[in-house]
Design a protein that fits this description.
alpha/beta
Length: about 160
């Protein structure tokens, strides 16, 4: 099941392109190259109700799987090699906690590259191939290996290569 057309590029044939220079090309080589959007984490008031909504709307599985860290009350609905992450947080309902990009062959050396570019890297551990940075507006961006999926708290996480 694919939710979007793979050839969609957000361009509209009826709309004029942006003025020249309005959205200039990014100069230089990117620090990392994203290959997937791994997951988005939403804060919800009722996990079962939210899971049922997404199952009914999109056919996502109704079964929630617990995610790390243990006791976080965060659960995943798997689909299309990624997942929707739902976190129980009645005081923060409707907020996006974070989103995660997958990077092919991401490892701890990439975190050093981010630090070298002046980004504050957090959440770095020896056991998980994932780190967090903030975008210019303060949104939390998780970066992980493109094959990584947050696992059940009862499972041992895959070590960073």
């Amino acid at each position: 099941m694919r939710i979007s057309e793979t050839k969609y590029n957000a361009l509209c044939g009826r709309c004029a392109p942006p003025p020249a220079g309005a959205i200039g090309p990014v100069k230089g080589t990117p620090l990392l190259r994203a290959s997937t959007l791994n997951h988005v984490n939403f804060r919800v008031s009722n996990l079962q109700r939210s899971a049922a909504f997404y199952q009914r709307l999109f056919g996502l599985p109704p079964t929630l799987r617990p995610l790390l860290p243990p006791g976080s009350h965060v659960y995943g609905l798997d689909f299309n090699e990624c997942y929707l992450s739902l976190g129980l947080a009645p005081d923060r309902v409707g907020t996006v906690d974070h989103f995660c990009f997958g990077i092919d062959n991401f490892d701890l050396r990439d975190a050093e590259k981010l630090r070298g570019a002046g980004l504050a890297v957090r959440g770095l551990t020896g056991g998980y191939p994932t780190v967090y940075v903030n975008d210019p507006d303060g949104l939390s961006v998780q970066i992980a290996d493109s094959t990584w999926k947050s696992e059940c708290p009862a499972c041992d996480p895959a070590p960073v290569a």
